Amino acid sequence: MVNQGINIAVFISGRGSNLQAIIRGCRDKKIKGRVKVVISNRRDAGGIEIAKKHGIAVFVYEKKKFSHKRYQQLTDFLKSVDIDIIALAGYLELIPPVLIRQFENRIINIHPAPLPDFGGKGMYGMKVHQKVLESNIKYTGPTVHLVDGQYDHGKVLDHYPVEIFPDDTPQLLANRVILKEHQLYVDVLSKISTGKMIL
Ligand code: GRF
Fold first, then answer.
1. DSSP 8-state code for residue 92
2. What percent of the chain has pLDDT over 90?
3. pTM assigned to the model
4. Helix/strand/coil (H, E, C) string of 139-175?
């Protein structure tokens, strides 16, 4: 996969700013590869427009339509289009075993805080930054990790520190962390795509 670059599938449920960063990272040749498809489990995810604007195929796999066969179909589809890496970018659904088995050590996620301390079921959005502020730690920052069968749980691949200031609010912190997320995700995918990081 390293010679021609990697085929990336980005999974989203919302805004898609990390998707945007990954697309840009590919365009700027920091990442050796391309976003081949975008998968959304929500029809109204903002990231869908970003993908379309860049001519990237988008597939919406809503829960109610695909029931238990949904992830089997999705897995088959991703294999049929030669996906090397699945990058979760704000995807708010647990990845089931069928997909993890078929893409073992090839699914990664970004989380906006240190793991395992600030992750797990229900830990997304402002709740994460709120909990970070309540804990009185000095540094937070995004974490990229391998995806296993539990929320925010697999092996940590990389983390960028972000300093916490005394007058921070969850929103202020989120604003600074998201910028570092974009850098970190591109950096990790860059290393994977050039063989500098082996999963
Ligand atoms: C990011 O904070 C990411 O760490 C988390 O969900 C958020 C997605 O943001 N998993 P965006 O949709 O990429 O803007």
1. -
2. 90
3. 0.96
4. EECCEEEECCCCCCCCCEEEECCEECCCCCCHHHHHH
